[in-house]
């Protein structure tokens, strides 16, 4: 969601200057059918969905749209949706109700549903939500001009074709709601794993990797514009592969070599695929951040098998031990699903004991939500009662909260290199930034430093989620 007007680069403007540089007598401007019309775009779900919204914004600006932070004054409202859990979809439906009310007052308005929920529900969306005009899946954004002109003619339009090739490699994303310091760079799309609980393979289609040249070019341009951190995004970055000649470790190295001042992060790693080569590459480059997000989902091998995660508890522990051995100062975070089909009390205890073993710096914890069409929905009964799921969730949450605090306390007395990314939310006398472990640090501004600078900060204390420190020379 955007809470302030967006500062957007007009890409057709750049194209125009390029043409004039070539000495053409005649400057040909692309027709901008929608000049002066306003777009409001709101995004839900994972970082990849937010990155997609930046591609959509780029395509829309090319058509002449400008963006607004006020949906009530928009000509087009786009909601980029997530289907991962039922509550994610409910949130979107509630929001659509508010947009529909706005459309009744402004009948010329077009409402478009984008992303995973559009892909999952397809034309059913138009039947269920009467005021939606456009339904567009994640691989069809290039078809926006066509769909918008159909909507202008009063035709409700759908394009949910999935592609085996589309990576939007040539489109320069318009950075939305950016702090100007950190940006996401998509390196692949889709997912070929079939985790039984997961809707993503159905909403995002087959896995495909993006041309490395376009990835490096985008990261370089970001650096030249003043960005100091890129996060390489994919559902399973370790299976990145370009024409059998470049794997993820190779790509990581290419991006790390752009400039030592550009921090590189990546997400998400799959425990079955993360290689020692990636860990060695992380060690080789100081600017690759020592942080790995390694979703465990469950600490029990039988449950992992039902989830079709294709690794066991022992395999996962071996990967953790190897990370700790090769990169002792690596922070590790995870995702956990609580109350998956048939999970027993002992199996839940196995997840708790796994968390106790790994001592995650951070965890995203979810109760299992059955998703229509997934393997688990077809094969297993969602048989853990809600009150049991909630109780198990609270046990896991309590353990993780204690662990996160304990991990933060271990930083007290240490000095960390912090990339400043803005001011503290509580006071503009304090700056805020991140350590390479992805921990937020707040410290008094000294008048000499600004967002984008690196400073050494001595950690003096912590709150449950933040380190507090002071700059040292
Ligand atoms: N690709 C990543 C991986 O393999 O770990 C994660 C992708 S998913 C967008 C993010 C997280 O949502 C998953 O790791 C999982 O913990 C959670 N998740 C996915 N499906 C779920 C479901 N049906 N119910 C509850 N949580 C779910
Ligand atoms: Fe979903 Fe599994 Fe793919 Fe992650 S790896 S997106 S959890 S199917
Ligand atoms: Fe949600 Fe789709 Fe991402 S289901 S988590 S927005 S890939």
TrEMBL record:
Cofactor note text: Binds 2 [4Fe-4S] clusters. One cluster is coordinated with 3 cysteines and an exchangeable S-adenosyl-L-methionine.
Subunit relationships: Monomer.
NCBIfam families tied to this protein: miaB-methiolase, MiaB/RimO family radical SAM methylthiotransferase
Name of encoding gene: miaB
Protein name from the UniProt record: tRNA-2-methylthio-N(6)-dimethylallyladenosine synthase
Reactions that this protein is recorded to catalyse: N(6)-dimethylallyladenosine(37) in tRNA + (sulfur carrier)-SH + AH2 + 2 S-adenosyl-L-methionine = 2-methylsulfanyl-N(6)-dimethylallyladenosine(37) in tRNA + (sulfur carrier)-H + 5'-deoxyadenosine + L-methionine + A + S-adenosyl-L-homocysteine + 2 H(+)
Family according to the record: Belongs to the methylthiotransferase family. MiaB subfamily.
Purpose: Catalyzes the methylthiolation of N6-(dimethylallyl)adenosine (i(6)A), leading to the formation of 2-methylthio-N6-(dimethylallyl)adenosine (ms(2)i(6)A) at position 37 in tRNAs that read codons beginning with uridine.
The TRAM domain, residue ranges: 409-473
A UniProt-annotated Pfam family: Radical_SAM
Organism of derivation: Daejeonella rubra
Domain called MTTase N-terminal: residue spans: 37-153
Enzyme class: transferase
Residue positions binding [4Fe-4S] cluster 1: 46, 82, 116
PANTHER family referenced in this protein's UniProt entry, alphabetically: CDK5 REGULATORY SUBUNIT-ASSOCIATED PROTEIN 1, MITOCHONDRIAL TRNA METHYLTHIOTRANSFERASE CDK5RAP1
Entry-linked SMART domains: Elp3 (SM00729)
Subcellular location(s) of the protein: Cytoplasm
Region ranges (Disordered): 1-21
GO molecular function ontology, one term from the record: 4 iron, 4 sulfur cluster binding
